[in-house]
Amino acid sequence: MPYFKDLTNYQYLLWDEKNPNEYVFNVGWLDEFNDFPKGETSQEFKDKLRFYFKFPQQQTCGFRSCCFCYKEDGLPKEGQRWYISDSEIWIVGKNNKIYASPKMIVHYVEQHNYLPPPEFIEAVLNGPLPGSDEYNNIISEANNEYKDLEKLMNDNDIFFSKNRDGYIVCNKEFAELKIIIKPKNILNQSI
Predict the structure, then answer these.
(1) CB within 8 A of 125, min separation 6: which ones?
(2) Secondary structure class of 21 (helix, strand, coil)
């Protein structure tokens, strides 16, 4: 999973990385090479964060496993189970600020004592919940740039996954279709 410092502008699944969404911020993009804050969080926070888990955003082509739960050979440490992430959760805070996190954040908080920034905790505890009109409207506005892409994906039963070369086109069985699309050409490609 890529590492992004907490509260930096979100860029992971943007089609144009030079123009990040000014209202969406990274939280919980951890890796084994960078320290992260640790501490206890309330059970109420954990329960509400887990609720967001049921409303994924930005589905990816493939899965990521927890880098803290595995030995160097890639196998789980004794007593650990596989934990994977295949999408994100988006939390809405004050002034419609959105926090984008890998679904793995639930695991990081519960199993590795990751302590997210206070404003993120506040947003989870007091922000609009997924499924509410307020939440849906704010998220829809933030995702407005993806509307044409969603139609392309739905019409062709495909989705995109980002890698270092651009975006890989995948079918619903997670099979790569061997098409690489550069970000500025994404909506001009024929499938």
Answers:
(1) 44, 45, 48
(2) coil
Residues 114-133 have a mean pLDDT of: 96
The span from the CA of 118 to the CA of 185, in Å, is 38
Which residues are bridge partners to 56 per DSSP? Answer: none
Q: Which of 135-139, 150-154, 179-183 has the highest mean pLDDT?
A: 135-139
Between helices 43-52 and 105-112, what is the axis angle to 10°? 150
Q: To the nearest 10°, report the CA torsion of 125, 120, 69, 88.
A: 90
CB 29 within 8 A of CB 102: yes
Task: Report the C-alpha gap between 123 and 18 in whole angstroms.
Answer: 27
Q: What is the CA radius of gyration of the chain?
A: 17
CA distance 37 to 41: 12
Structure confidence by residue, pLDDT tens digits, 168-180: 566 655 555 545 4
Whether the pTM exceeds 0.90: the reply is no
Q: Which residues contact 65 (CB under 8 A, 6 or more apart)?
A: 82, 83, 84, 85
* 3-class state of residue 140 by DSSP: helix
Coil, strand, or helix at residue 141? helix
